[in-house]
TrEMBL record:
The keyword Oxidoreductase applies. This is FtsP/CotA-like multicopper oxidase with cupredoxin domain. It comes from Solirubrobacter pauli. GO terms for molecular function: copper ion binding; oxidoreductase activity. Residues 17-30 have a biased composition (Pro residues). Residues 1-31 are annotated as: Disordered.
């Protein structure tokens, strides 16, 4: 996981050496090089209504006007901010030349009807009204929306179609994080030819893809010494693994995949598979300029991404900040873990991702009309995900998050739930999950989207054997 578990408190950043310090020269940063954020759209009185127009058009991205696949003309799309218990009405207008749809990655909602239903397609030229009823006890945190049309997902996501959704916690609504600047960082990795047209994704682009933060190349971020910021980071690339390191600093992770941690984890490197999210607290005491790196990531079979600078952080005295200089205590942003390791397991399954005979799960390519796994509503299941191939595959399941319990059969002690987990070549990950609250049909798949487009995806169906419902085991959220 790339985390050093067990740290009990926010450690903060580097400490200044004793003695008089030379005054750092203020950085010369062009005004348009500072990190921008997508527009934030808030729910009002329990409802958030938004229209998302999916369109291939020119957008200002990576410092120039380029061809892109956009929501509302932007790369990334707008940030939606709502609360558990809210209703989200999303009108998707498809101005693409091909079918699309909308997956709300991380939402614990119904997978049917016009909710998080990725089994349907919205044809070119059509409009579809989604409605997401967010449960009152939904986990607070960072989730995201992106297209999920089988066979064309990589092309649309590679072109930029992604945006974030933040669910606020009760404590946040009461102001628990008012002293912390809240930033959203959407990581994407497209690639254009010299004419500014999007290339078709291929594994060979790993070294040359452009790594973007909120559509910007190496944006600059200003921090005031002693101030704490909360960065909500999503890996919205189709195939990149981002191992993030901020030079000279440790990062304190407080949530993964839209699920709060039960304890803060202070670490040098935060790892994000495609589709994954991390919420980290960043604090610096030392003026200076520091690079936020994506470290080389080994995808297997000789594919290694280069060391890249994603953003440049300037720690400058005299900046106007949001909060005070006292260390921020993250406890109000944490949540107790509903530990499934101590609970009886209803059923165990092994799911194998393979590249023998194509990109498959359990030897089969995706079939929209075939149900691969039938599970019972509210069952606690233990799934072992085996990767028998030479490439890395991030496993994602829709609707219900999971608690990772073992890697290669060795127990791990995770501070929270995930919905996307890296399974390394010739390796396995075991997790426990409860198929809670919602019946219906949805998907599990490799989140390297070209792999799922090629068939590394399966269908699960949650059925209710004791209609109208059995008692809940424990609340995951
Ligand atoms: Cu894969």
């Amino acid at each position: 996981m790339g985390v050093a578990a067990g740290a009990a408190a926010l450690a903060g950043g580097v400490k200044p050496p004793r003695g008089p310090q030379p005054k750092p020269a203020p950085p010369v940063v062009p005004p348009d090089a500072w990190l921008r954020e997508p527009e934030r759209i808030y729910s009002h009185r329990g409802r958030l209504a938004v229209t998302l127009v999916a369109e291939e058009r020119e957008a200002f991205v990576a410092g120039a006007r380029r061809a892109a696949a956009t929501y509302n003309g932007g790369v990334p799309g707008p940030t939606l901010i709502a609360d558990p218990g809210d209703r989200l009405d999303v009108r998707l207008v498809n101005r693409l030349s091909r079918p699309t749809n909308l997956h709300t990655h991380g939402f614990h909602v119904s997978p049917g009807g016009n909710s998080d239903n990725v089994m349907l397609d919205v044809p070119a030229g059509a409009t579809f009204d989604y409605r997401f009823d967010i449960p009152r006890d939904h986990a607070p945190g960072l989730n995201w929306y992106h297209p999920h049309p089988h066979g064309d997902g990589a092309r649309q996501l590679f072109g930029g179609m992604a945006g974030t959704v933040i669910f606020r916690s009760e404590a946040e609504r009461r102001g628990a994080s008012a002293a912390v600047r809240d930033r959203v960082l959407v990581l994407q990795a497209p690639e254009w030819d010299t004419a500014g047209q999007l290339k078709v994704w291929s594994a060979g682009l790993l070294a040359s893809q452009v790594r973007l933060v909120n559509g910007q190349l190496n944006p600059h971020i200003a921090l005031r010494p002693g101030e704490t910021e909360r960065w909500r980071i999503v890996n919205a690339s189709v195939s990149d693994f981002f191992d993030l390191r901020l030079d000279g600093h440790q990062l304190t992770q407080i949530a993964a995949d839209g699920n709060p941690y039960s304890r803060p984890v202070t670490t040098d490197v935060v790892s994000l598979p495609p589709g994954g999210r991390a919420e980290v607290l960043v604090r610096s005491d030392t003026p200076g300029t520091f690079a936020l790196h994506a470290l080389p990531a080994d995808h297997g079979a000789g594919f290694v991404s280069p060391d890249l600078v994603l953003a440049t952080v300037h720690v400058e005295p005299g900046l106007r900040g949001v909060g005070g200089r006292r260390p921020f205590r993250p406890e109000p942003l944490l949540a107790p873990l509903c530990d499934l390791r101590t609970r009886p397991v209803d059923k165990r399954r092994t799911i194998t991702m393979s590249m023998t005979g194509g990109f498959t799960i359990d030897g089969k390519k995706f079939d929209h009309d075939r149900v691969d796994q039938v599970v019972e509503l509210n069952a606690l299941e233990e799934w072992t995900i085996v990767n028998d191939s030479v490439l890395i595959h991030p496993f994602h399941i829709h609707i219900n998050p999971f608690q990772v319990t073992h890697i290669d059969g060795v127990p791990v002690d995770e501070p929270g739930y995930r919905d996307t987990v890296t399974v390394r070549p010739r390796s396995s990950v075991t997790f426990r999950t409860v198929f809670e609250d919602f019946t219906g049909t949805s998907l599990f798949h490799c989140h390297i989207v070209p792999h799922s487009d090629l068939g590394m995806m399966g269908v699960f169906q949650v059925v209710d054997p004791t209609s109208p419902g059995s008692p809940l085991l424990c609340r995951l959220t």
